[in-house]
Fold these 4 entries.
Entry 1:
Amino acid sequence: MADNHVSDESVQHSDENSVEDIKRRRFITGITAGFGAVGGAMAVTPFVMSMSPSERAKNAGAPVQYDYSKIQEGQMVKVEWRGKPVVLLKRTPEMMQGLKEIEGSLADVMSDQSIQPEYAKNEDRSDPAKPELLVMEGVCTHLGCSPVEKLAIGPDPQMGDDSQGGFFCPCHGSKFDLAGRVYKNVPATTNMPVPPFKFEGNVIVIGDDVGRA
Ligand code: FES
C-alpha cells in the first residue's frame, strides 16, 4: 500500500513527460521502495514507512515521527511523509570525511540554489547539533525519481572509481553525495530537498520545526 503511494507521488512530478518516462519511473521507484539492503559490508537498509499518523492524517501532510536512536551508524532508513520517501541516514566518520573530499565535483556545495531549512544550510546539510544524521527527501530534483542509495565508499559502477558514497538516480543518471548534494554535469541541477524537522528526545519529527530550539 505504502509503496504504491510513493510511486504515485513520483508520477505526479512527470505530467509533462512521455508515457515511456512515466512507466520507467514507476518501475524504478518500485525497486527503490522495496530496496532491502546495500552491498558489501554495509548495514541493512530497511524501508520503514510512517508509523504513527492515520492514513487520513498522512494525506493531509501531518508530521511523522521516528525514533532515530534505533538507527545504527552507517545505516539508513526511509519514512514516508506527504507521500514522499524521507531518508534518515546516520553517517559514519568516514562518510562525513568523504563529504569534504568531493566538494570540487559538486554543483551547489553550500546549497545556495537548493531547498532546505536555514538550520540545514551547511556542508553537511544537517542540524549542527547532530551533524551525522542526514534528513532528506529522497526525490531526484531532475524529474522526481527516487535515487538508489550507494552507501559504500569505494569504486562503484555508477558513482565512479573514487566514490565517497552517495545516491544514484537510474532514470537519467544524476548523482548526489551523502548529503544529497548534486554532482556537476548531470541532469539534476539542485540538491535533494531537506524537509523541516525537529528533535524531541530520541524522536525526530519530520514536517514540523515549530518551536525548534
Ligand atoms: S529523474 Fe532524471 S536523473 Fe533523476
Entry 2:
Amino acid sequence: MKITLLGTGSPLVDPNRAGPSTMVQAGEATLLIDAGRGVQLRLVGAGVIPSMLSAVLLTHLHSDHITDLNDMITMYWVMSQEKGTLSIFGPPGTQQVVDGALAMLGPDIGYRVAHHEVLKNGPQVEVTEVAPGDEVEIGGCTILVGKTNHAPVEPTVGYRISDGAHSVVLGGDGIPCNTLDELVAGADAYVQTAMRDDMVLSIPNPMFHDVLDYHSTVVQAAQTAAKGNVGTLILTHYVPAPPVGDELEWAAAVSDHFDGKLVVGPDLTAVELS
Ligand SMILES: [Zn+2]
Ligand SMILES: [Zn+2]
C-alpha cells in the first residue's frame, strides 16, 4: 500500500502547495481522496493520469476539497475517450455538487462532443453518497466509512482503506471524536489535517480564528494516533501551511504525544507500507 500526499496546502493559495488531496494505491485500486486546487498537477507528478483512477472519495464538501473536481471530471472523460465511468463517493450533497459541476461544464461538453467524433455523450460520472458504517469494495480493497466531527460542516466522513495486508485511515478535516477513534483504532497509518493553533492565533484577523474550533491541532492528531495505536501518523493540509522544508519543526510537538513514525513534508511526499 502506498500513500501519496498530493496536496498539503491550506485553503489559502500557496505557490508551492496544492490544495488538499491524497492518493492511496493498494491492491488493484488507485484512490483519490479529495480533489483540492491543483490536484491533477500533483497526480501526474506522482505518475498517475486521471483515467487510471479507480474512484474519488470525498471527505466533505468544503470548497478547498472539491475545487478541482470539475477538472477531474473533464480529464477523466477526455483522457479515457469516454470509455470509463468516474466513480465518486462522498457524503450526502455530493450528487448536488457533481450535478452543479456538470451544469457548469455544459458549454464545454457541447463544444467537445461537437468537435470530436469519439466523444458522444459527455462525462459519465457515477455518484454514491455514503453514510457512516457503509463498506465499499474497490479493486480488492475494503473501504469503511466513518463519521467525523467538522461541525458546523455536516455531514463529513473519513475512510478506512484496507487491502488485506495494511490499512490507512483518511480522517479529513475535523476534531477528535469517538467515531474517529473507532475508525482509526489499530490502523497501520492515519492521515489527518492538522493545524497549529498557536500560529493561527498569532494572525491578527478574527476570521482566521474561526478555523480553530473545527480542525485538529497537531497535538490532537498525535493524541488520536496514540489512542488508536497506529504505526504511522501522516499530517497534511497544514493550517497555516509552513514554508516547504519547515514541516518537521512545525510538527515538533508530536513527539510528546505519539511515539510511532511521523510523516510530514511537501507535496508528493509518499509512504509505502510494507
Ligand atoms: Zn473542511
Ligand atoms: Zn479543508
Entry 3:
Amino acid sequence: MRVLVTGGAGFIGSNLVDRLLADGHDVTVFDNLSTGKLANLSDARRQVDLPLDFVRIDITSDALEPALAKVRPEVVLHLAAQIDVRSSVADPVHDAMVNVIGTVNLLEASRRHGVSKLVHTTSGGCIYGEPPLEDLPVAETYPGHPHSPYGASKRGVEEYLHTFQARHVRRGRPALQHRHRAPDQRQRAVLRFGGVDRLRPAAAACSGATRGAASQRPGHHPGA
Ligand SMILES: NC(=O)c1ccc[n+]([C@@H]2O[C@H](COP(=O)([O-])OP(=O)(O)OC[C@H]3O[C@@H](n4cnc5c(N)ncnc54)[C@H](O)[C@@H]3O)[C@@H](O)[C@H]2O)c1
C-alpha cells in the first residue's frame, strides 16, 4: 500500500515508518525537520530493498498539495505537529498555524487527491484540560476544556474531522467506531469517519501519561 507519513522523521513517526517498511508498504515521509531528524530514519533507509522517499516540506505550505498529488498515497498517517505545550503557550499563533492550518491543508489535499483513509494523532490528555485526580481516567466524552493552546489546537482539529466526516463521508459506511485495544493509559482508540480516521491515546493527564512516552530515539523531547 502507498502510505504517506507526515512527521515521519519525528519520534513516533520514525518508529511507525520502520514498521510500515517491515510490513512491505511503500512509504513516503513529509517532514520539515523542525524537530525531527533524518538520522531517525537511518534504520529505515538501511533497508535498501524497501521503498522509502523523504520530502522536506512544511504541511502549512502551498507546496503540500502538488507534493501529495505526486505521491498519490492511499493512506495518510498524520503525525506532523507542534507538540510542545510550553511552546504553544509562548507562541499560540505558531501552534495553531501548524496544528490547525497545517492539518486542514492536509485534509483538503487528501480529499482532493483520492486518499481513502487519514489517521490523525491527537492528544490523550490536553484536550480535556486538567481534570481533578478523582475523575481520572476520564472518558472520551469528558466535557473538560483545554487549558493550553496545544490542547485547543488538537481539540479544534477534531471538530474539523467531524466536519469533513459530515461533508465528505461516503454513504453506507459506519460514521464512527471506537476500538480500545489495551487497558492501560496509553491505549489508543481508532475513530472511523467513513474515509477519515483519527487515532488517539485514550484519556490521560496532559503532563502525565503522554510525557511517559519516553524517547526511543536520540534527541527526542517529550510531547503531549
Ligand atoms: N510524544 C508524545 O508523548 C505524544 C503524545 C500524544 C500525542 N502525540 C502526537 O503524536 C504526533 C507525533 O509526536 P512526536 O512525539 O513524534 O513528535 P515529534 O516532534 O518527534 O515529531 C513531529 C514531527 O513533525 C515535524 N513537523 C513539525 N512541524 C511540521 C510542519 N509544519 N511541517 C512538516 N513537518 C513538521 C517535525 O519535524 C517532527 O519530525 C504529534 O501529532 C503529537 O501531537 C505525541
Entry 4:
Amino acid sequence: MTNPSTLENTQIDGSLGPPEPIQETTLPSPFDEYFLSSLASSDFPRLVELYNSDLAFILFSPPYPYTLSDAQWFNDNCAHNRFPSYPGTQEAWVIRSKSHSGILVGICGTHPHPGKSEQHFRLGYFLAPEFRGKGIMPAVVTEVLRKFPGALFEAEAEVGNLGSQKVLEKCGFQYVEDGDSEKSWPVSKGGGTRQFLKFVKQC
Ligand SMILES: CC(C)(COP(=O)(O)OP(=O)(O)OC[C@H]1O[C@@H](n2cnc3c(N)ncnc32)[C@H](O)[C@@H]1OP(=O)(O)O)[C@@H](O)C(=O)NCCC(=O)NCCS
C-alpha cells in the first residue's frame, strides 16, 4: 500500500522526492542557539561520521559500519515522512547550531509505531559527543512533543544509560513497570543482549 505521507512528494515525472523542508523552529531561550530543521543531503557525511563514532555501540537501529548509501536510504525512506494528523511535523528533526554554520548537532526521531494508530509514536534521539551534557536534548524533546498534541509516545533507554533516562524523566515520561525488555544486539555492533526500560508519555 502506498504510504499516504509520500503522495504529496510525487514529482512531475512520477518519481518520489523529499517534500519541501518543514518550517525551522528555534528552541526557546537559553537554547536559542539551536534550531530544528529537516535533513539535507549535505548532512550525509556528518551522519556517517557520527553513526560510526560511539553511537555505533549505543544506538540499536543504524547499520554499522554506516555508509553514505545508508544516509541516502534514511533520507529517502524515513527522515521526511509526514503525519497527516499533525501538520508541520516530520519523522526526523535535525538539531542544528547557529554559531556552527548550521552543523548537524543531533537528531530527534518521532517514528510511527508499526501496527498502531496514527497517534502512536516511538521517540529516539542522539547528540554529537561535543554537544552532550549541556541540557540540549530535554529542550529539544519538549519542543518537538509540543507539535504532537494528543499523541502517545513510547521510548526505551538502556538500563545503564542514565543520561537518556534523565531526559525522559525531565520531559514528563513515566517508567512502565512491566515494560522491561531484552534486545539481541547486532553482531556487527558487538553482539550479546542488552536490557531496556520502557517509558511512555501522553501528550
Ligand atoms: C542521552 C543524551 C541524548 C542526553 O542529552 P543531553 O542533552 O546530553 O542531556 P542533559 O545535558 O540534559 O543530561 C542528561 C542528564 O543526565 C545526567 N547524566 C548524563 N550521563 C550520566 C551518567 N552516566 N550518570 C548519571 N547521570 C548522567 C546529566 O548530569 C543530566 O542530569 P542533570 O540535568 O540533572 O545534571 C545524550 O547524552 C546523547 O546523545 N547520548 C548518546 C546517544 C544516546 O544515548 N541516545 C539515547 C539512546 S536511548
